[in-house]
């Protein structure tokens, strides 16, 4: 059983299905999809539709054009990307900070 996490796109609150949300009577193991439709973000009150599944792939990605490495642990603060943002969670219009190519030019660093 894989427990997924969902992040509130408004305030970055993380709903972790493994933990649930006991303060809101959500039992541990409750999948995000199983939360009642009226459930809202405990921090900012945003509806479920504002939540996005967290990509837990924290591998680094290398720009094939210039060699820049995107490291999710660092993010890209100059572009407003918080540390902890996986490559898959980067906005589609994100560009290499060094040479400006798009995400398509990046390849996963697996070693
Ligand atoms: Zn929120
Ligand atoms: Zn580059």
Q: Summarize the biggest pleated sheet.
A: 3 strands, antiparallel
Count the beta strands: 6
Secondary structure class reads: mainly beta
Strand order of the largest sheet: 2-1-3
Radius of gyration: 16 Å
Q: Which terms summarize this structure?
A:
111 residues; mainly beta; 3-stranded antiparallel sheet; 18% strand; elongated; binds zinc ion
Structure, described:
The chain is mainly β and 111 residues long. Helices cover 0% and strands 18% of the residues. The strands form two sheets. It has a three-stranded antiparallel sheet, with no helix packed on it. Strands 5-4-6 form a three-stranded antiparallel sheet, with no helix packed on it. A hairpin with a 5-residue loop joins β1 and β2. One zinc ion (ZN) binds next to loops.
Describe the structure concisely for a colleague.
The chain is mainly β. It has strands at 5-8, 14-16, 51-53, 60-63, 69-70, 106-109. The site of one zinc ion (ZN) has 8 residues, from loops.
List the helices and strands and how they pair.
Layout: E1 5-8, E2 14-16, E3 51-53, E4 60-63, E5 69-70, E6 106-109
Antiparallel strand pairs: 1-2, 1-3, 4-5, 4-6
Bound molecules: zinc ion (ZN) (2 copies).
One zinc ion (ZN) binds next to loops.
């Amino acid at each position: 059983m894989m427990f997924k996490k969902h992040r509130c796109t408004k305030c970055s609150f993380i709903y972790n299905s493994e933990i649930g949300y006991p303060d809101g009577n959500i039992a541990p193991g409750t999948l995000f999809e199983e939360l009642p439709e009226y459930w809202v973000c405990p921090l900012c009150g945003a509806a479920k539709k504002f939540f996005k599944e967290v990509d837990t792939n924290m591998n680094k990605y290398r720009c094939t054009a210039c060699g820049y490495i995107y490291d999710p642990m660092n993010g890209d603060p100059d572009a407003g990307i918080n540390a902890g943002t996986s490559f898959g969670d980067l906005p589609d219009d994100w560009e290499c900070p060094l040479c400006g190519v798009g995400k398509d030019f990046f390849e996963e660093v697996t070693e």
